[in-house]
Amino acid sequence: MMKYSFSDFLQLEPVIRGLTILLSIMTGYLLGKFAGRAIERALSARLDAHQVMVFKRVAFYTILILATLTGLNEAGVNLNVLVGAAGVASVAIGFASQTTMSNLVSGIFILLERPFLIGDTIKVGGTTGEVSLMGLFSTILKTPENMMVRIPNEILMKSEITNVTRYPIRRLEMLIGVSYAVDIAELRALILDGVSGLSFVRRTPAPDVNFKSFGDSSIQVAIGFWVERERATEAFTLVAEQLKKTLDGAKIEIPVPQRGLSFGENRSLRVEVVSSKSQNL
């Protein structure tokens, strides 16, 4: 039978401490994952995906940190020294990363205000994309060109955000110009009849046609109509095709801009083309 001396036990003690810490971390990781799944099942029916994700992360990291601290304590590590060192480090990191903290605070405010959710399509500045991930420090958008755009949360808080898909229906507007010879009342009735006949155009709210202005060579009118948000891009093209057929069938001209020049008697017009290399060509 093999016997161990006290010196052998002293040599094994660091290994036992290390295994204790490792086992605590692994236990915390597994418990955190289990708690995250339980939270997702309990809250998915009442909260949106973004809020569920935040609660899952908070639960996971809280359990993991507590389990790690418990393992360190059981292994005989002086937590007071560790906490003090962490406090000093956090102060130093805070001064060195003010932008990071600003992004974190902005992310919390965005979570509370909820101007968009995961899966929404938003416009921020010149970027349009679907929100695929809302992190604590940044938000990830997937553009229609299938590119990823990372936007820091601080920029989102300072920018104007347009949520394209927040509401189930959208109003689209199309401008057209028609000849001055056309009767506006008849034109309005003709357009409404043509647009209302399209199956994807909603009856409520109803389409509308409004006078906009007397242009240089045409009367400008605006056609407004409502569609389901999923068909907004397709609907704009289909309505344009239908309007063109309707106006062509009624022999209504869509004039192009024209310019006329008139001269008095015994007068002529001289045109000069000037380039950067030579003049009076």
In short:
This protein has 281 residues and is an alpha+beta fold.
Polypeptide structure, described:
Among the domains are: 12-77; 115-163, SH3 type barrels; 169-249, Alpha-Beta Plaits, CATH 3.30.70.100. Helix content is 48%, strand content 19%. The protein contains 7 helices and 8 strands. Mean pLDDT is 79; it is low at 271-281. The chain is elongated, with a radius of gyration of 34 Å. It is of the alpha+beta class and 281 residues long. The protein has helices at residues 6-43, 49-74, 79-96, 98-113, 153-158, 184-196, 232-249, and strands at residues 121-124, 127-134, 138-142, 148-152, 161-163, 169-178, 208-214, 219-228. The strands form 2 sheets. It has a 5-stranded antiparallel beta sheet.
Describe how the helices and strands are arranged.
Elements: H1 6-43, H2 49-74, H3 79-96, H4 98-113, E1 121-124, E2 127-134, E3 138-142, E4 148-152, H5 153-158, E5 161-163, E6 169-178, H6 184-196, E7 208-214, E8 219-228, H7 232-249
Antiparallel strand pairs: 1-2, 1-5, 2-3, 3-4, 6-8, 7-8
Helix pairs in contact: 1-2, 6-7
Number of helices: 7
Order of adjacent strands in the largest pleated sheet: 4-3-2-1-5
Morphology call? elongated
Content of β-strand: 15-25%
Name the helix and strand elements from N-terminus to C-terminus, one letter apiece: HHHHEEEEHEEHEEH
Overall mean pLDDT stands at: 79
Model regions low in confidence, pLDDT < 50 over at least 5 residues = 271-281
Helix content: 40-55%
The number of strands is 8
Name some characteristics of this structure.
single chain, 281 residues, alpha+beta, Alpha-Beta Plaits, 3-stranded antiparallel beta sheet, 7 helices
